[in-house]
Amino acid sequence: MFTLRQALASAAAALSLAACGPKETPEPAQNPSSAIDAAQDVLNRGSTGQLDPLFAQAAREFDVPADLLKAISFTETRWQMVHGEEEFEGMPAAHGLMALRGEAIVRGAALAGVSAEQVRTDAASNIRAAAALLSSYAEQLKVDRKDLGAWAPAVVRLSGISSADAQAGYVHRQVYSTLRNGVVAEGTNGQVTASIMPTPVEAKFAQPSVRAMAAGPDYAESVWHASPNYGSRPAGTDIQMIVIHTCEGEYSGCWGWLTNSAAQASAHYVVNESGSEISQLVAEANRAWHVAASYDCTLNSNVMCGLNTVSVNHFSVGIEHAGFASQTSFPTGQIDASAKLSCNISKDQTVVRDSYHIVGHGKLQPNNRTDPGPNWPWSTYISKVKEFCNDAPAAGIVVDTNNANNNASVAEFKVSSNWTVSSGTPGYYGSNYYFASTEALSDPATFRFNLAAAGTKTVQAWWTAGTNRSSAAPFIIWNADGTKLGTVYANQQANGGKWVTLGTFNFSAGWNEVQLSRWAAEGYVVIADAIRIE
Q1: For residue 180, is it within any domain?
Q2: Which of 123, 345, 414, 416 has its CA 20 to 30 A from that of 154?
């Protein structure tokens, strides 16, 4: 996505041309359907799969404004082909560019003459179904189809939002704001995939009430939308965790649903797509209903095990984010706004600012939740939380096996496809670890760290222990100039789940390495988890 100012000329040109057991078992990969993969690939390429012609075709077929269709799609999905999950019970998962759900999929499919599965997985069918629904609502509401502002009530009906304030916010500050400001998106090849030129239009729909813009009680930069869905925290309970969620939908529909008593769900906060607005729904002192699981410390690297079997809601604050666990990236503005909020919560509630106390919903409830998804930038996010809180930089460098948790300027992990990622044995550092069978060959897991200046540093390693591990796992220490500084043989059958010192070495400035070799007595595995340099 690039700025409108940069894109207007190229967009116009493009539009004119386009109408620990005995063995480790890795967790299964979460792969979307091949049809959705194909659709998303088209969107990412941005060449043969331009979106503007698809919107234009559906608009002509069902007599609806093309830019209005595009503005709704941008509001709902940022023009991504989503395959949502059910974040809130009673709210079906959203699908496609238009984020259609439940009965809307069935009815839209019938109106467009396609199957419900096509609406879920095919971009053109999804847009056509939404256009057909929007047209039917316009007919029922007697909309003047030539008056763009008059379409607002039909837009609200398509959204499925029931809260009057949320409806107003959706129409005025999201869909019609997009029409007024315009937006252009490009594919990875630089070609325009979809665009809306700025249009001076106002929605003919009631504005949000003054009450709807009052500040929240705990965060001055939030808007207070009180939810009835909360309870009291047990007496003496300290808040020790912040849980990160995705709404599986857009912003207004998210807080609108969570302020409905029928939802029987809530969160303390909801952050909009751009980070320009945050809603507070429940006071931090109260217990919001955002995680349907009791705490299990084995899912969180054996941290806070004294809270096992306690409802996560008792001791946590929940932050929902407009968007989807399946989306490919999250806007910088949203990440910054959320990190600033998490900093504020952590200061007020003395929550530790690390990846064990600021965690994803899916990590705590993995049986039926994945949010915020694999592309949430955890390393960047935690770093920003600390930055907003003016935390002093942590001593030393940690190199994790998940590069998303690493500071890319100083830490990198590299491994061949012969190694298997796993989270099967509790006590791992960060998100997971890798293992490989011992064998007489050169195929190491490599932990790289960049030193700004030469120095004497202590090297520590973290692994998960088990009887199938090597008792002499070879860690080879390399200087930045390619000099081998030594080999340390570690017993990985013991001392799991903690830092174990390998030794102290004199390193040069630049990229130094610690390699875990597979070259050890056969019949075992070696575990690559994390390295710390101090």
Answers
A1: yes
A2: 123
